[in-house]
């Protein structure tokens, strides 16, 4: 091997090694910020996306995830979803202002491992978790939960199968590096005056399952201290409104100069869901933290994007209603809740910048071209 080739190989190896193994667990259905989170995860050069686990059983959720993954050149990423599947579509019966997007994304951007009509080809979510965790190095996986905790609850209770002889909880504890959970209010429900009811991600499906996962994490005999657990509370992204530039650039109205093939599925999702208005960034910010840590991406500036709101303790969820409360235990030092370190407007700029780089930058478009041609059009080399 020539010196240049050796140097190139080392550089590429370093880049590959630096990638973070990520699994996303999402309720891609009732809000569009999950789609924005997927955009960031699939187009980030820092991520090795192992799987997407859907925790809402609409077939359109799985098909939309497949369409988004395929658009950004990640058609190979496996998708899991619980059974039985339904053909439920989202209807906003609260404010009658929000629109449905998953079926439209699934149909108009059909592609990937689950093209239109093929949702039943998706993995069982627990089998998929067990497969990708078994194949990963110990302590190497970051899971970011941006929806309900139902799939993780079933995973914890799972037993030996063809993928691993380990019980689910043991397998998860061995493979995890970090578990990022979007949901809750900190230090306790309604402490920020936003709501006296349980957080959507804890109470919106089955609060007992959310409580099972969150409360199990305090079992010190099962969870090694090296596994970090970070909660991204509802307050973190609630006032960080994003998607506006993405909508304007990638989802211009019919009749504009934009070609149909250049439309972006996530941009269209934001347009359809919020009627061309930005949305809060609960899930995108959870994924940004999962990928980049407290510092955030380089666009965040020197001061960093996030900080922890505690130095010790753990979270507890009430299994009856999904409300939560932080327990200030000096003996627990691996669990944290996140706070924004910058103004909401600055955080929105960072997220919008990642959206735009993803949809128009070299990563998104290059990724798609590599999938189609097997070649990198920056350097002309065969895809590695
Ligand atoms: Ca979500």
TrEMBL record:
Keywords: Hydrolase, Signal
Family: Belongs to the IUNH family.
Gene Ontology MF terms in the entry: hydrolase activity, hydrolyzing N-glycosyl compounds
Signal sequence region: 1-18
Record bears the keyword Repeat: no
InterPro entries: Inosine/uridine_hydrolase_dom, Ribo_hydro-like
Ranges of residues in domain Inosine/uridine-preferring nucleoside hydrolase: 22-292
Pfam family membership, one: IU_nuc_hydro
Protein name: Inosine-uridine preferring nucleoside hydrolase-domain-containing protein
Keyword Signal appears in the UniProt entry: yes
SUPFAM superfamilies assigned to the protein according to its UniProt record, in alphabetical order: Nucleoside hydrolase
């Amino acid at each position: 091997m020539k010196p240049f080739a050796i140097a190139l190989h080392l550089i590429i190896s370093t880049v590959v090694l630096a990638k973070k193994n990520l699994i996303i667990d999402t309720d891609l259905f009732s809000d569009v910020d999950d789609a924005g989170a997927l955009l960031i995860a699939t187009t980030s050069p820092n991520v090795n996306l192992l799987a997407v686990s859907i925790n809402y059983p609409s077939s359109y959720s799985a098909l939309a995830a497949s369409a988004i993954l395929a658009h950004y050149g990640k058609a190979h990423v496996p998708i899991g979803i619980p059974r039985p599947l339904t053909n439920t579509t989202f209807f906003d019966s609260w404010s009658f202002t929000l629109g449905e997007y998953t079926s439209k994304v699934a149909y108009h951007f059909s592609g990937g491992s689950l093209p239109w009509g093929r949702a039943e080809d998706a993995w069982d979510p627990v089998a998929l978790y067990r497969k990708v965790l078994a194949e990963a190095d110990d302590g190497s996986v970051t899971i970011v939960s941006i929806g309900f905790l139902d799939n993780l609850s079933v995973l914890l209770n799972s037993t030996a199968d063809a993928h691993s002889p380990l019980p689910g909880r043991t397998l998860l504890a061995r493979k995890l590096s970090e578990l990022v959970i979007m949901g809750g209010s900190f230090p306790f429900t309604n402490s920020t005056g936003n709501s006296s009811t349980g957080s959507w991600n804890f109470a919106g499906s089955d609060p007992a399952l959310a409580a099972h996962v969150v409360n199990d994490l305090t079992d010190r005999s099962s969870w090694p201290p090296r596994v970090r657990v970070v909660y991204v509370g509802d307050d973190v992204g609630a006032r960080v409104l994003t998607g506006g530039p993405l909508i304007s650039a990638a989802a211009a109205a019919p009749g504009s100069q934009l070609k149909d093939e250049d439309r972006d599925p996530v941009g269209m999702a934001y347009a359809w869901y919020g009627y061309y208005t930005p949305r809060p960034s609960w899930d995108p910010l959870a994924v940004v933290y999962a990928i980049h840590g407290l510092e955030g991406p380089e666009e965040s500036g020197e001061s960093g994007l996030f900080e922890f709101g505690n130095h010790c303790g753990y979270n507890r969820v009430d299994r009856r209603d999904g409300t939560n409360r932080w327990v200030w235990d000096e003996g627990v030092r691996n669990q944290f809740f996140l706070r924004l370190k910058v103004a909401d407007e600055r955080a929105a700029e960072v997220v919008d910048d990642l959206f735009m780089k993803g949809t128009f930058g070299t990563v998104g478009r290059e990724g798609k071209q590599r999938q189609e041609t097997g070649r990198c059009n920056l350097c002309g080399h065969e895809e590695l």
